[in-house]
Amino acid sequence: xxxxxxxxxxxxxxxxxxxxxxxxxxxxxxxxxxxxxxxxxxxxxxxxxxxxxxxxxxxxxxxxxxxxxxxxxxxxxxxxxxxxxxxxxxxxxxxxxxxxxxxxxxxxxxxxxxxxxxxxxxxxxxxxxxxxxxxxxxxxxxxxxxxxxxxxxxxxxxxxxxxxxxxxxxxxxxxxxxxxxxxxxxxxxxxxxxxxxxxxxxxxxxxxxxxxxxxxxxxxxxxxxxxxxxxxxxxxxxxxxxxxxxxxxxxxxxxxxxxxxxxxxxxxxxxxxxxxxxxxxxxxxxxxxxxxxxxxxxxxxxxxxxxxxxxxxxxxxxxxxxxxxxxxxxxxxxxxxxxxxxxxxxxxxxxxxxxxxxxxxxxxxxxxxxxxxxxxxxxxxxxxxxxxxxxxxxxxxxxxxxxxxxxxxxxxxxxxxxxxxxxxxxxxxxxxxxxxxxxxxxxxxxxxxxxxxxxxxxxxxxxxxxxxxxxxxxxxxxxxxxxxxxxxxxxxxxxxxxxxxxxxxxxxxxxxxxxxxxxxxxxxxxxxxxxxxxxxxxxxxxxxxxxxxxxxxxxxxxxxxxxxxxxxxxxxxxxxxxxxxxxxxxxxxxxxxxxxxxxxxxxxxxxxxxxxxxxxxxxxxxxxxxxxxxxxxxxxxxxxxxxxxxxxxxxxxxxxxxxxxxxxxxxxxxxxxxxxxxxxxxxxxxxxxxxxxxxxxxxxxxxxxxxxxxxxxxxxxxxxxxxxxxxxxxxxxxxxxxxxxxxxxxxxxxxxxxxxxxxxxxxxxxxxxxxxxxxxxxxxxxxxx
Amino acid sequence: xxxxxxxxxxxxxxxxxxxxxxxxxxxxxxxxxxxxxxxxxxxxxxxxxxxxxxxxxxxxxxxxxxxxxxxxxxxxxxxxxxxxxxxxxxxxxxxxxxxxxxxxxxxxxxxxxxxxxxxxxxxxxxxxxxxxxxxxxxxxxxxxxxxxxxxxxxxxxxxxxxxxxxxxxxxxxx
Lengths: 785, 174
Ligand code: FES
Ligand code: FES
Hints:
The structure holds 2 protein chains of 2 kinds. By secondary structure, chain A is an alpha+beta fold. Helix content of chain A is 25%, strand content 24%. Chain B is α+β, with helices and mostly antiparallel strands. Chain B has 2 domains: 3-74, Roll (Ubiquitin-like (UB roll)), CATH 3.10.20; 75-171, [2Fe-2S]-binding domain (DNA polymerase, domain 1), CATH 1.10.150. Chain B has a 5-stranded mixed beta sheet with strand order 2-1-5-3-4, with helices on one face. Classes of the chains: A alpha+beta, B alpha+beta. At the A-B interface, helix 6 and helix 17 of A face helix 1, helix 4, helix 5, helix 6 and helix 7 of B. The structure holds FE2/S2 (inorganic) cluster (2 copies). One FE2/S2 (inorganic) cluster sits between chains B (108-114, 150-152, 154) and A (87, 373, 424).
């Protein structure tokens, strides 16, 4: 039963005030301090999220009871989010900015941000879509809190709610005013916010209901370049990184991973006790670990034991040289149905049959690595009381918690995941985690002490997940008017989203299933993920074909080439071929590739980012190739994407040395329209970084593997861009408050470079490079063909 | 037992002499600025200054640093204070201009590589107070055993930060 403000003011405990569906109550009075805490109640489960395949069969633990937002008597405000920051800064900049605006306080009033830890945050969820399509949990939570504060103030000041206004945390009306801090002083107020969903799922809980939101036109904090509070501690060596976690009695661990992606353990090597008196070998199934009191002893002992450890042989991979032949000729694309995009329309076959100019070709993208600068590490602490603590740097702490619980056959209640700053890993680089967590727990359980497992560089490159390779078949046709009459694209990509922790697989412990035929969300299926932006094309057919992970079925340990999401997952694999094909279509039509895009685009915001990219990059509209003379040739290319409601265009200007085949990216112009820009400086920095990653992936990166294992094992065999590769990067932010919402502003920055650079190479040389990466040897073969 | 001068303090170290300096700093001396990135001298995450010169602590054995002066990220403020002859509260609160510039420019994304980037910047600015962009690129890619790698791609921000640090240092000449 909903109470009234009077009952609240009279301090009748247990009587609630309805605040737009949230419930405000007073727990009691306190002598010192006082606070309003905004926690949650689960109203119902969402059926969509119940279907998350990876979560099936896992008992739901008791929910965390920590609050989203706390307003304290000293006017400080604390916020909590289950999402961990892995370098985006969003949790430390955009989130406090969003909350500050909804609460009508200054940015600086948000003094504490708690993120990630499973026992200290309310909502779970992974580090993706941090802005929640414009409605992150923290925004709605803040909107509820604001209404509750107005209710409390209205009663206390005896002024009707609609006559109150708030500025910098001071509520005023009827000639009176009071600060938030004074409003909660001496009281314990609880605001219970409705949520739905499954905290342990990939998406976590979602705040529901419709509290009134602050009008976008009144934002004063969103839109300004506030600094990231974690930068100071990181730069001044005050941050507690995950790598710094030291527990009493903790041992250092290293894991000896199998010889191939399908090897079983024949015999673990014998530890040379004379050299390593304090070390210990742990064997569980095919998992071989070493623990020792010091890190150096653990490293040296693991090298000694590894040299003496015997594995069975396995040869089940196609080799990197045969990858694309394998994908085209041998891979299984029939076990799951293809998915057709909702933008598909018209009769493409008829268009192809009747148009004079046609193109039919294939585009190829290799496997890529997340390649964090610091290989994954975690501390596992399996305690005598049965509780399990994991200290790590994971992208989804609540999901990791369920994976650890499943692995050990315990309830998720028993597992606590603590998160710390760590090396960015841009997605999920091992079974949905960073990598070493499950191995640390297994070793800790075996030796009865906390164990810190640090992966070495080769462990990370060879045993983390890959970003799936892909290829696309395109057929397109140009009509007599120089316009696209039909466009057909078939995307092929092995399954992504392998949530199985590698240590659990090797140890033979329970895991979630590998991606399979089932699974409504992911499984082996592929989905059209690159929204079609050329609405003027009369006939379009886009299909996505999925299949099993390569090598997995024949691997006796069920491993093979495991895949998981990396920055702009799936859409990167689909946008590269689509955009490069559009560039080819433009040249086929004798048109300028940027103008050709404008002529076919129908959405205003897509056209606007293209025009902005043209004008800010100095693009000169012309038809045909650049036609430079001499051995050094210059060209320019363009790409377009819509991701998560944000519109992107990129112009690349390159120089090709035709003697060496080296491509130098001279300049990248990145234009994004995310609707509302929350923090211009942070967004600019994120985009600059993403652009560099994009150059790296385009020019240098390719997973190397032979018929049995991954051979990329260090920064020589998996090179990434250095400062020498850095182009001039120009970032243009389109701030459009009238869109009314903020959308993903940074993630896609890494995906736009490839089609733009390949387009620029085409413009410079007249030769088309349809396979990534554009390394000098490949470029030279194209030039000499 | 080897003695090493770390951030201005003589430290006796019990670890075996073949132990890489990185593990001594992180595990024995609790100086956790340097990070483990590759252990192969290929990335620069572990860099420290050894007698003022950037070295990769992941491959530098303890035996090679005995009697020498090591400066870690933690020691940059004191290094600057000493160079500027600052004392008292002024010395206690100052950050090295490189660190200040890194904050002003909001340089780190994840920040994991930035220890090495700031060490390299300090080394560069001590010899070249006003570097050009080409000199900065040269220092971060050619002057050590490997380029300094940043997977987050903060190279633009690093160049701007080195230039800002050079400005701060130039302005602070008394
Ligand atoms: S960790 Fe020393 S250079 Fe990479
Ligand atoms: S800031 Fe993340 S690796 Fe450089």
